[in-house]
Please model this.
Amino acid sequence: MWPSCRHRVPHGGSGFMVAMWAMFVTLVRICPATFLAQSSDSSAAPPAYKQLRYEEDYGYLRDPGRQSDPLDVIKYVSLGSEADRYLSLGGEIRQRLEYFRNPVWGQEEQDDNGYWLQRYMLHTDVHLGNRVRFFGQIKSGIEIGRAGGPRGADEDKLDLHQAFGEIKAWTRGKDGLTLRIGRQEIGLGSSRLVSFREGPNVRQSFDGVRLGWRSGQWQIDGLATKPVQTKQGLFDDAWDHTRSFWGVYAVGPFGVLPKGKVDLYYLGLDRKRARFDQGIGRELRHSIGARIWGKTGYWDYNTELVYQWGSFGQGSIRAWTTASDTGYRIESIRFRPRLGLKADIASGDRDPTDGTLGT
Model:
């Protein structure tokens, strides 16, 4: 989310952090006269910010009557006389203090003061009509004060996080075929197997191709990518030549349950140097899975089953997992608390010498 227009640049740390703060302050302070001229009347509530920022659509702001937020002036910037040619700007600032007692059961150095994780992200979304689009995002992850220094996903001083082009090869209403090429975040389903890594300080992106087909209530995506390696320097991130990821993911209605949906998928992973208790070797893993989820009334449900097979070194892979998360939201109480029951079960590797990996 965007912070308040009043910012205080924190002391210490990196010059990149200060530069990122300056860019954010500039964005939220541009065109103050336009902010004041915004209409306070809107026909609908503005959409919520999304975890995958490229999923946000601010094309509705072409109607001046829908502009009610002071930041709408940077969410829809016209690029000409045609209303569907525009750019949208956005960003994120996240500050987190972490402290662990006896980290990794005493295997890591004790940090008595904790440490500060900072995330800064800026993006621009350019629409050149209804069929062509370009999306770009830069990131800066800063770690300050951790004993032992930053971990792998703690720090990435400044880098290109996303940069892709997208073309709609065919459209009919909301249906169509979309091709996306470049560096992009990917989140599938409940992010059990594929995630953009929101928890750590530096998010995950992928270099590759995504082809999406939408027809009625069904969305089917095909993927062929390589994960991007997170490095701590300046614009030094590159795809990981030792890993490849591909698959097909479909989402559609599940009529057996009220307002139910189903995800059906196949995912493939190739790691040239994977490490398990059995040793180090090439891992070629295939996953098929199904997820049933939805919400009806105050209840929500999410159940997933995955089976995996493949090879590791000279041996084979046979693994599975199932997970369930069911909850009830109490709407009549302040803060709308949710009571939930969650259970996860996964296979394990009982014998590291039997030639079959069960993890």
